[in-house]
Amino acid sequence: MHFYLQAPNPKKTSNSVTELDGKLQELHDTLSRLRRESDEQVNKQQQNFLQKVRAYSIQIYHGQIQKLRRESEDATRTIERLQQQLQRQSDYETMKREIQ
C-alpha cells in the first residue's frame, strides 16, 4: 500500500484560512457581546440591590426618627411637669416663710 502526499491546493487552503479567520472573528465578536451583556446585567442587578438597601435603610431611619421624636416629646412633658411641681413647691415655701 502506497500513500501519496498531494501538495495542498493553494486556492483551497487560502479559502479555508479565510473562512477560519471569519469564524474566529465571529466567535470573538460573540464573546465580546456576551461579556458586555453580562457586565450590564451584573450592573443592573447591583443597582437594583442598592436601591432596595437604600429604601430599607430609609424605612429603618424613619422608624428610628419617629421613636426618638416620641421619646423627646415624652421627655419634654416630663420636664414641664417637673418644672410645674418645682414652681408649686417654691411658691409653697415662699408662702410658708411669709406666714412665719
Write a short abstract of this structure.
This protein is an all-alpha fold.
List the SSEs and their pairings.
Elements: H1 10-99
Explain the overall architecture.
Helices cover 90% and strands 0% of the residues. It contains 1 helix and no strands. The N and C termini lie far apart (144 Å). The relative contact order is 0.04.
The tally of helices reads: 1
> What profile does the largest beta sheet have?
none
Distance between the termini: 144 Å
Overall body shape: rod-shaped
Q: Structural class, from helix and strand content?
A: mainly alpha
| Pattern of helices and strands | H
Low-confidence segments, given as residue ranges, are none
Percentage of residues in DSSP E strands? under 5%
Key terms:
mainly alpha
